[in-house]
Amino acid sequence: MQQNGHVYLSCDKHYYSVPYTLIGCKAKIIFTSTLVKVYVRGELIATHRRDRSFGYTSVEEHLASNTLAFTKRSASYYKDRAKSVSDALLSLFDSMFAGSNGSCPPEYYYKTCDMMLRLQRSYPEDVFEEACEICLENRLFTGKRLENVLKTVQQSRHAMDSAAVPKPTDHANMRGCLQARIQSAVLHCQQADGRAQACQT
């Protein structure tokens, strides 16, 4: 049984809850066309209606408090949190959840959302907003990609601020070096995604 208090039925790509006091025990799953039964040491510990789609079936009494809090989250929960801290992050979350087109369930993105919210607390507002906009434009929907873009934006701004040359009045010129670095980081991310997809095919 997994640390999140669920067993995984791989043929359906679905998770079913078990009593959290038995986490770590070896479980046996027996299923029919309509039911899933979980046994530990020959004793029936959980029965669920079978669900053949990706997701979680959870009984509240089975779950530890931290797992229960996670299962009560939703796309709306994360959008509300993003709205309270950053318009650009909200747009990124909107596009991320909508862009899956059903290929990934909302739960797939929850850890990504948590990481992005943590990153928001670690960077200046203007740096974070710009990085989110770049990720949105280039469809970089992972926490690690956002972190890489944030580092690139911040490093480029520091380099520009420390340069002992008069700053041009043309905003487009000011952003030239920054944009070149960002485009390089984005290209690196996209190439990494392409290699990952090639390995999966």
Descriptive overview:
By secondary structure, the chain is α+β, with helices and mostly antiparallel strands. It is built from 8 helices and 6 strands, in the order ββββββαααααααα. A hairpin with a 3-residue loop joins strand 3 (28-31) and strand 4. Helix 3 (87-99) runs parallel beside helix 5 (125-138) and helix 5 (125-138) crosses helix 6 (143-162). The longest helix is centred in the C-terminal third of the chain and has 25 residues, at 176-200.
Layout: helices, strands, pairs:
Elements: E1 6-9, E2 14-17, E3 28-31, E4 35-40, E5 43-49, E6 55-57, H1 65-71, H2 75-83, H3 87-99, H4 110-120, H5 125-138, H6 143-162, H7 171-174, H8 176-200
Parallel strand pairs: 2-6
Antiparallel strand pairs: 1-2, 3-4, 4-5
Helix pairs in contact: 2-3, 2-4, 3-5, 4-6, 5-6, 6-8
What's the quick description here?
This protein is of the alpha+beta class.
Keywords:
alpha+beta, disordered C terminus, 3-stranded mixed β-sheet, 3-stranded antiparallel β-sheet, 2 domains, elongated, 201 residues
Question: Structural class per helix/strand content?
Answer: alpha+beta
* Arithmetic mean pLDDT: 79
Whole-Å distance between the termini?
30 Å
**Number of structurally distinct domains:** 2
| Total strands | 6
Helix content: 40-55%
* Low-pLDDT segments: 195-201
Number of helices: 8
Strand order of the largest sheet: 1-2-6
> Can you summarize the main beta sheet?
3 strands, mixed
Encode the helix/strand succession as letters. EEEEEEHHHHHHHH
Q: What's the gyration radius in Å?
A: 22 Å
